[in-house]
Amino acid sequence: MIQIREATFNDITAISKLGSTTFLDTYLPNTPKEAVESFVETAFATDTLRSEFDNTNIHYFLIFSDETLAGYAKIVCNVSTNMVEETQLTKLDRFYVLKEFHGQKLGAQLFNYIINFSREKQQNGIWLYVLIENKRALRFYKKNNFKIVGEYDFKISETRYNPNYVMYLSF
Questions:
Q1: pLDDT along the chain (171 residues), means of 10
Q2: Where are the domains of the chain?
Q3: What is the distance between the alpha carbons of residues 70 and 161, in angstroms, rounded to a whole number?
Q4: Closest CA to 49 of 79, 85, 8
Q5: Which CATH architecture best describes the domain 2-170?
């Protein structure tokens, strides 16, 4: 059975662990280990996550398969980008499903959930950064009607930036 719910403050440890695992899986093949580990130590630190739960525009969603945490998404409402003229946009900041759950359509279910949530929040579209080398993610977003609208150098560490596409889906 698949369940999706909005995360609470009590989920911070699980988000930290899952976020670290999925980020390392995604970025280690294309990025020096020390740069990825530096990013993970900051971005997925429990103190960082705690502060995000204080921001009413940030929402985390967890997806479970048979009561096992399989993935999560982080969105930020009302965040514009200079690549899109539209306002009142949702930024899909993180979207990860653990490798062992790939191919089970969990990503599609979680994606539809956050799209519906964003629409309910009166958002006009959703945008994201995606690593150019992440072919699996690019196929997923293109299949879900996202368009590449630009490029962005994503800062991993003080000395490392990875090339990303900026993708956008209008509602």
A1: 96 96 87 88 93 96 97 97 95 95 95 97 97 93 97 91 96 95
A2: 2-170
A3: 28
A4: 8
A5: 3-Layer(aba) Sandwich (3.40)
Neighbouring CB atoms inside 10 A of 5's CB total 12
pTM: 0.93
Strands 89-97 and 125-131: parallel
Distance CA 134, CA 100 (A): 17
CB of 81 within 8 A of CB of 8?
Answer: no
Between CA 22 and CA 33, with CA 28 as vertex, the angle to 5 degrees is 120
Q: Helix 12-27 vs helix 33-43: angle between axes, to the nearest 10 degrees? A: 160
Neighbours of 116 (CB within 10 A): 10
17-to-43, 60, 71, 84, 113 alpha-carbon distances in Å: 11, 14, 11, 33, 22
